[in-house]
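Could you help me review a protein record that somebody else here produced? What it holds is a sequence and that sequence's fold in token form. I need someone to confirm that the token line plausibly describes how this chain folds. Take the sequence as given and treat only the tokens as open to question. This is what I was given:
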Amino acid sequence: MTQIDFYILPDTTLEARLEFACRLAETIHAKGFRLHVHVEDEAMARQFDEHLWQFRPESFVPHALDIDLNMAAREAEHADDVPRPPVTIGWQDAPAPGIEALLNLHPEIPEWFSRFERVAEIINQHQDVLVTKRECWRTYKSRGYAVRSHQLKGVS
């Protein structure tokens, strides 16, 4: 069964949430997992992409937007010829098979979340995030998933 982890930040800003998401993506990648980051829309995907490039000068998390990978696959003679990085970012459909972990930055749970071994959710103290992620917590629990919380302090 999919393991669900909620990371609870003391901060209220979107910036702090994205910063922690970058650090978590880096950690998941370093552990050898393939990761998909699910976001709300293209603007947020591009914002997270930019954060991954800049959040720590010494860090490199190989990643790409799903939309760019899909376009490259359409242009290639064989879709399998397009290499997929270990971290993908998307907001539309489920990512390609073979990805073990999902970092869900979208307010809602994607219907295909259970295909992953692990799902990470990040909560900060912004009211909108608190409301939507509490609902996600209840949904996971009502479906019988074991949900773990990680209360973080001073993660900046």
The mean pLDDT is 92. Strands lie at 3-8, 35-38, 63-65, 87-90, 101-104, 118-123, 147-151.
